[in-house]
Amino acid sequence: MVDPTTETCPEFAGALYAGICTDLIAATGQTEQEVIDRLVDTWNAGHKERVLAWEQQQENEALAVANAERARVAQEEAEHALQEAEAQRERAEAEKKKPKMNGFKEASTVGDFLAPRPSQYAVQKLTNFEYVELWYFSPDGCKEALKTSRSVADDYGLTKVDDQLTIRPVSAFKPRRQH
Length: 179
Description:
The chain is mostly helical. It folds into 2 domains: about 5-95; about 120-170, no CATH class. It has 4 helices and 2 strands; from the N terminus they run H-H-H-H-E-E. It has helices at about 20-30, 30-95, 120-125, 140-150; strands at about 155-160, 165-170. Strands 1-2 form a two-stranded antiparallel sheet. Strand 1 and strand 2 (about 165-170) form a beta hairpin. The longest helix is centred in the middle third of the chain and has 66 residues, at about 30-95. It is rod-shaped, with a radius of gyration of 52 Å.
């Protein structure tokens, strides 16, 4: 529909409408001015109706656009809420899978005794399925390994294992002295 607010009333007194005016004057017996006034009034009434209909249509279209926008926003919010719920569920799942730290009793004590272990040399021999004397696993052998062991800063040496060059603690290559 074209915007009727830009329309202007035709000039009913002009030559274009002279034939219609003459016919109306003859049919109704009114004066020329009364016929022209009646035509202008009729046009104005029709113009008002067209303007009102156009404004109503514009209002309906604006309302439809607003409703569509609200529906789009509501759908986006629903999708966002769904994504947020999914993310929350995934976080909850991840939280369930996270290892939990066990509680502890404050009154419990920790021993100050370290159980003796065999030397790295003996363990390495077992790992390689090689012969190792039983003394290394005796209490004396484990005590000796504890006395002579060092911290993390042990000396390291190169060795060949399965055709590959590897680094191992030097203590894995030399036997401890036996008593």
